[in-house]
Amino acid sequence: xxxxxxxxxxxxxxxxxxxxxxxxxxxxxxxxxxxxxxxxxxxxxxxxxxxxxxxxxxxxxxxxxxxxxxxxxxxxxxxxxxxxxxxxxxxxxxxxxxxx
Length: 100
Fold this sequence. Notes:
By secondary structure, this protein is α+β, with helices and mostly antiparallel strands. Helix content is 33%, strand content 34%.
């Protein structure tokens, strides 16, 4: 089953994000290599593909896991959490309907 992982950043998180971005991306690439990643990306703080110094307000990941517990455990181990990027992380079951 798919699970939605929505994470909200602390204020002014850009330097924290950049400090561990490579580790964060590596975990996502591992999910992708396993065929489990549906989508992933950050939420720009401004209406721009490249928000520059404005940074980001959070992230969205939709990926397949064996259970809600497994998805939560995976989310809890994100390097952005240990670096203090995220102030809140929500994990919920997600049902993909479209596109088919």
